[in-house]
């Protein structure tokens, strides 16, 4: 799922690591922070070289969720769950159901301080299984009155972020004729590609799944090998797949004016933000850009009006504009400015607990 990424400092409130008693699978539920409220973050099922890699992913992603939820202005902390598979693991329908029942038990053990949801490798139907073991789950299927799949709101927030980034990097919000490279055509990347193509962007796309070339052809987009996507001249490079893609080597060769995409943890190292800035490449912090889904899930669970929810999602673009302005005023990277925004909210929340 990711390139080799460094572990965050261990500041987590609690991490539940189990071997599922039904499935026999590795499961980690990582609660990083509940300072702003019960944590919210998805549960992913993915294949890892070793169980420790799955645990590392849970630790990194839960810490990132704390930043994401804080910067988004949500009264929610950060958490994440991972069901880790090893190469060759067979997960049929029965074992899959068992795994998500086991996940439900792990979430329940955290006493309501962590709410889970669908993520990479999991679905809203999987969350319905989780709900058999715990009430601390959001994003259940529409057919049972849940809020459903959050990919649409996520892509809306990414689009709003891309417009704000384009405005800052190029001086216009007009997508027509602008060169955009999208690396990853999953649910969010595909939605974004469809919208940008409809507005006249000049698209180059790629995905590790070669079957996605059919979508590229339908959109009239260029196709490149995933390893060469960053070499394509673009106004905006959109990492929409694996984490850690922006290594030093990729950044040094990146032919783009800005980076803005939904991939979690796209920087292989935090110092990559400085490396991008040194090359004059604007970086939109991922945990701001991809917050649309979690905003939707959190506010829908709190029964907020849909119009209000979608306005909050679209407002991500304005949050990003403030971050860009703050970064320029303070002569820091947008990543540092975004982290400061999150830290201020967390400090306020911590003070309220004293």
TrEMBL record:
InterPro entries linked to this entry: Aminoacid_DH-like_N_sf, Glu/Leu/Phe/Val/Trp_DH, Glu/Leu/Phe/Val/Trp_DH_C, Glu/Leu/Phe/Val/Trp_DH_dimer, Glu/Phe/Leu/Val/Trp_DH_bac/arc, NAD(P)-bd_dom_sf
Active-site residues, as the UniProt record annotates them: 80
Binding site for NAD(+): 184-189
Nucleotide-binding in keyword set: yes
The entry's keywords: NAD, Nucleotide-binding, Oxidoreductase
GO biological process: amino acid metabolic process
Protein name as annotated: Glu/Leu/Phe/Val dehydrogenase family protein
């Amino acid at each position: 799922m990711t390139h080799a990424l460094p572990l965050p400092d261990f500041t987590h409130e609690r991490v539940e690591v189990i071997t599922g008693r039904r499935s026999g699978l590795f499961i980690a539920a990582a609660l990083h922070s509940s300072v702003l409220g019960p944590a919210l973050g998805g549960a992913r099922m993915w294949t890892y070289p070793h169980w420790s890699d799955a645990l590392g992913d849970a630790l990194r992603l839960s810490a990132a969720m704390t930043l994401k939820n804080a910067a988004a202005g949500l009264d929610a902390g950060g958490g994440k769950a991972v069901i880790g598979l090893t190469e060759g693991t067979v997960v049929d329908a029965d074992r899959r159901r068992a795994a998500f029942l086991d996940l439900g038990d792990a979430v329940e053990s955290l006493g309501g301080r962590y709410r889970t949801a669908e993520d990479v490798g999991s679905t809203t139907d999987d969350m319905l299984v989780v709900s058999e073991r715990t009430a601390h789950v959001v994003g259940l299927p529409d057919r049972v009155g849940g809020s459903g799949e959050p990919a649409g709101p996520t892509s809306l927030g990414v689009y709003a972020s891309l417009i704000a980034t384009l405005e800052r990097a190029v001086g216009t919000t007009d997508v027509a004729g602008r060169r955009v490279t999208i690396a990853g055509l999953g649910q969010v990347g595909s939605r974004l590609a469809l919208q940008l193509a409809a507005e006249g962007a000049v698209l180059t796309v790629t995905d590790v799944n070669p079957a996605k070339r059919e979508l590229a052809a339908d959109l009239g987009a260029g196709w490149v090998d995933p390893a060469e996507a960053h070499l394509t001249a673009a106004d905006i490079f959109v990492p929409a797949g694996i984490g850690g893609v922006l290594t030093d080597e990729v950044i040094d060769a990146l032919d783009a004016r800005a980076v803005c995409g939904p991939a979690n943890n796209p920087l292989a190292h935090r110092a990559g933000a400085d490396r991008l800035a040194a090359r004059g490449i604007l970086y939109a912090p991922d945990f701001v850009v991809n917050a649309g889904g979690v905003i939707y899930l959190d506010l829908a669970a709190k029964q907020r009006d849909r119009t209000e929810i979608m306005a909050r999602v679209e407002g991500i673009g304005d949050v990003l504009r403030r971050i860009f302005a703050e970064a320029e005023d303070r002569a820091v990277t947008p990543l540092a400015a975004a982290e400061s925004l999150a830290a201020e909210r967390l400090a306020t929340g911590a003070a309220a607990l004293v």
